[in-house]
Input
Amino acid sequence: MTQKNKAYVKLEDLFKKKSVLAGASAILHWDNAVMMPDGGAAARAEQLATLGLLTHEIISSTEVSDLLDEAEESISLLSEWEAANLREMRHEWRHENSLKSDLVEAMSLATSKCELTWRQAREDSDFSLLQEELGEVVRLNQQMAKAKTEIFGCSAYDALLDQFEPGCKSADIDILFKDLQDFLPGFLDQVLDKQSVYEVSQPEGPFSVEVQQELGLEFMKALTFDFDRGRLDVSHHPFTGGIPDDVRLTTRYVTTDFTQSLMGTLHETGHALYEQNLPAEWRHQPVGDARGMAMHESQSLLIEMQLSRGKEFLSYALPLIRKAFKGEGEDWSDLNLTRLYHKVERGFIRVDADEVTYPLHVILRYRLEQALLSGDLLVKDLPAAWNDGMKELLGITPPNDALGCLQDIHWPGGAIGYFPTYTLGAMAAAQIFEAAGHALPDLKQQITAGEFTPLITWLKKHIHEKASLKSTNGMLEEATGSELKVDAFKKHLVNRYLKS
Amino acid sequence: MTQKNKAYVKLEDLFKKKSVLAGASAILHWDNAVMMPDGGAAARAEQLATLGLLTHEIISSTEVSDLLDEAEESISLLSEWEAANLREMRHEWRHENSLKSDLVEAMSLATSKCELTWRQAREDSDFSLLQEELGEVVRLNQQMAKAKTEIFGCSAYDALLDQFEPGCKSADIDILFKDLQDFLPGFLDQVLDKQSVYEVSQPEGPFSVEVQQELGLEFMKALTFDFDRGRLDVSHHPFTGGIPDDVRLTTRYVTTDFTQSLMGTLHETGHALYEQNLPAEWRHQPVGDARGMAMHESQSLLIEMQLSRGKEFLSYALPLIRKAFKGEGEDWSDLNLTRLYHKVERGFIRVDADEVTYPLHVILRYRLEQALLSGDLLVKDLPAAWNDGMKELLGITPPNDALGCLQDIHWPGGAIGYFPTYTLGAMAAAQIFEAAGHALPDLKQQITAGEFTPLITWLKKHIHEKASLKSTNGMLEEATGSELKVDAFKKHLVNRYLKS
Output
């Protein structure tokens, strides 16, 4: 028998226990957003806080610390995946160990409460309702970041960023975002000019929620979503939650416009496929988790933006859409619907934004959350700073806070350092889809025919199944031949919005 | 400052933590039955097992044991409710401490698995699918009972019974059930004779699920159910789950018959009101929990059988039902619908049984589960024994196991010792409703007018808010003037089925 790294084996047990409890939390978090009556909120917050504390205590225990030291001494006994798992365990331990239990519990309670208040504040478009509780969440994030900077030896913002996109530094983001900022304004003007010469009309509703849902389910099925291991529901803010063997997608429907819910569903399906295709043999281990939020977003945007808004997909999907809604006439022509799906405009809402203006929404939030964290921006001044930033970056000023700084759940939910991953994901999506196109010479014909298995199989092999074996850039290099760059994304934008 | 029972205060913290985790499990258990896709079952079973183990470990710890000893020494420092809480803590500790962690975990995994298999076995009416896994659940129950008999100094069956109905002994049940068995067969013949002289017709469907659901929601609202702290959904086997501030009711709809889902919803509403009206100031403490399953069932049966099938409630409800389904003609007359709701017959399915034959279904299960536990009956012989018992008690033989021993989730779910509480509850319901009638002289007129607040307020004061302060019989004595007897139940049956 071969020698065993016994400490590592014990670590696998402990991390599995933590993952199982985190999975329970994930389902409860989904229930919060989709099922729970308001009166259950206080009890649910206690449940999530208690579970969060338990998972924190498992990982930050002295036992785990000792086992990590011991396992790392015998790392040579481990396979490539096991060694990567140990590396990820150490990374997770560093994050958990940087925080005292009372801070973890306080954060969980504060964010549960603040998320609930946010719903009301957004509904009433009243920032004053949220101000105090958001202030508390920011303060707790500042404490958390301070504790982490000492462990990770980096800036406060980078310490938070590392939770969502391990290894990523704001210095790297600054370079990528500067490239985009240099490119986008001029490009946006060109696109708006080009689009100004024709009218796009919105097909007239109402569009029944049932039909929208059925269409969404049909596309999910075509994209190989496994309904035995997941489901689609409705929530205020669409998200993909749950666990790999029970993925919970949500979307939202409006009866005046079917395009939002459909593309929303396709977006979440991209996230969901990543989760469902994670390697079952590494379930419940850190190396078996998705790589990070940038890579996660790359998978949703690959499906939504690269694939589903492309002309090949539309030529497959538009007839199905027309049939489902019994659409006839000019509004429902391929030309008009394609223009609708490619429409670019300076809008207020990030989740409704097109892929050209989206990065500008992200850059705004990236700036503001850095300023909130450093204290340069006070929570009370957020609405004004938001509106100023919108004016500068997008040239428009939100008429109220519901269309401004109250639109996103992220900060009330405690996630500072998350927003940049959306645009890193958009870049990665373009780069990966380009590589898939090179690897699969018949890809365009397959998409036109509604055959998505070759694409998803390629993604599964090169991205999904790799889980956290490599770094984000390491995985991108293997899959695409290069670390993350802006080039493919810019090329894609030019091709879709200026050349077609 | 007054002296404090410091050990007791620490116990409150620990039991709260346990209760919060148990609440998380309760929501996940509801999700299992209502939302979860099949592929999520294995992961969910792990979640529930891990949570079950954690709650077990909290209560059975040496720390709790020491604290209980210490707190009991200073019990004189405690208020009446605190002292009762300490008594309930000790009781819970005895149950948890009787079991080793590996048995708790094995039971949780085995029952999660067995419940899932049961769904399939029932659908296929194939007992052989279930036999092995049910055998494992029975074996684990035997181990569990053996461990408990040593702690509680009682028989194996009584040790399991005590989990669901604390303090209840099979010797007491035997006396009550013998009284029923002496009474019911002759009474059933009389009722069937009386009902044989007229025809009852079932109004013709289909009855849309939406309308059935709306009616159910309307009655729930009239009965003061708080929708801010609960919701109604659909599952295979109706149940009331969740937690007091987030009660999750389920029912099931068939489009050929609206009466089942309506009465099912009313039944679960009785359970739900008990949970919602538990004292908020004792939330998360053992004394704040519902008294036991007999008392819980008394509340569901009080609403379903005593209240909702009574002529006063029907005179309020039948016009609403006719209006909702646009029912016209003889089938929809007060007389026919009342006869439909009072119809007695020898049927196969317990949950569809009328209140006259229901106790016979329970007596069958009570006998069989005692025999399964003692080993006198082997799991493989269960279908035959079931059918023999049905023949003896009800005079009919199920044509297949779906209509026989596969109909209930209880044994696959690990609950042996639960069934008798249904009939104990039926007796208690009659006794409590009779007392409410004496206390509220205008009760009949109020019910006829659809005013249920006086009744629910009385129940809240005398039953719901008492939680676990007293024993079941102690609470019954205070509320009704007598411990549990068969008299009120028999009187009720005679009045409804022979005299009206």
